[in-house]
Amino acid sequence: xxxxSLEKICGLFFCPVGIQAGSDALTTTDPGDPLxxxxxTNPYGAPVSIETARKATAGAIAEGKKNGWTVAxxxxxxxxxxxxxxxxxxxxxxxxxxxxxxxxxxxxxKRSTKLFEEGIEAGRLQNLGLPGALxxxxxxxxxxxxxxxxxxxxxxxxxxxxxxxxxxxxxALAGEKAGDKSKEK
Length: 185
Hints:
By secondary structure, the protein is of the alpha+beta class. The chain has four helices and four strands, in the order H-E-E-H-H-E-E-H. A four-stranded antiparallel beta sheet has the order 2-1-4-3. The protein has a single domain (6-184), classed as Haem-degrading domain (Beta-Lactamase, 2-Layer Sandwich).
């Protein structure tokens, strides 16, 4: 499977996601990437695999542990149906539903939940009334072979910390693909 950065294909927003077709390795985007700034135009694809969902979740959980944050991580398919979920011991119970909500928002609206949060901060209060939207940093779509295959949502820390954990989820997938590439050489 060929993967490349979303910035080259679609341009989203603060979505630290970079599972795309094109290169041999997953790449992680940075906040300057269009992936972090607008809605994706990618079509929906087949659901994210349970294996990929587990690996993304492991990356987010590891980042939470490293920083002393307790988080819940949810991965949903393109229809917003829960594929995988994990909550660290000591995480507030409300974070379970919030993580799922962030993932569902990211997949339904084809963008990072941080985009909605920043819109509200800029005075676009109509973002508060969008049906099914949870406008808080920590949810990003997953893109594979140019298609949205699901989304990851993280909750439990401050929103910007949840965003760091989401980025770690994507980095875990990117690192795995980069490792696969080095084995092929």
